[in-house]
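Researcher: Next entry in the queue.
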Amino acid sequence: LASADNSVTVWRERNMLRVYTGQHDPWVESVAWGPDHIAAGLNNGTLIWYDGETGQLVHREAHAHQAGIEGVAFSREGHLASVSGLANGSDYALVIWRGMQRHLTLQGLYAAAWSPAGGQIAAGLGQQLVLYDAATGQPQHAYTAHADAIRDVTWQNGTLASAGQDATAVIWDEVGGHAMLHTLDARAQAATSASVADNGFLAVGHRGGVTIWRGQWPYTVRVGRDVWVTDVAYYGDLLAAATDDGRVLLVRGLTIHETLHGHAAGINALAWSPHGDRLASASADGTVILWEVTP
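Model: Structure for this entry, 295 residues:
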């Protein structure tokens, strides 16, 4: 396990590489996989970069945020955006990193996604979705369709989408701001995450399962009445879904194809490798697991 000197230990087990953060109390709230690195955000505000191939520690930023880092995302150039939550009077904040140096900080934002070209960042500002210039931090457009706070933003395969605390998911036209609103079943309570497949399917995580829209037609993959799907991530048409009881579900089409077990606590976030042959899962057990997956 993690050693007393805060080093990072890597264990290889069957089809997975288990990475220990080197911190005894904090858990891993977020994870992202970039061109060269994996980034992990901890609930004590620490941000860690790992080598994307070996899982070895590259850099640890101990005070990257004043609160837990609830989201991280890489641009295609390898720049990182990290988002923190509320704690000790500090507000939500988004930090953009160039290399591993802090470039700029934007206050009040929750959830973020890079544009495919990397020049913009879409972020949740309460009920609004705001597009920012990633170099200057200047807002460019602001759109509203959610009735409550935005919890997740994704920008994949030319599609910009958001998931909200109001149990809705929105697909946006980032040019004109026109929105296509999808409403979850009342039992879902809230939308936690969203992801878009190559074929245009929209997956949204929530209490009890993950709902997949094919156009206007929804289908829900059930995972357990009181189980939350905390994150969803498509690579191509293969969907990975994380649960708060420690499972990673691989969904092909509308069917659970495989279930991965390895975490000792709930999973908070998922991230695919650039080539889709590995999947990272970040857990409250203090580890990131790099799974070997057949796309």
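Model: Residues 1-10 have pLDDT under 50 and may be disordered.
Researcher: Noted, moving on.
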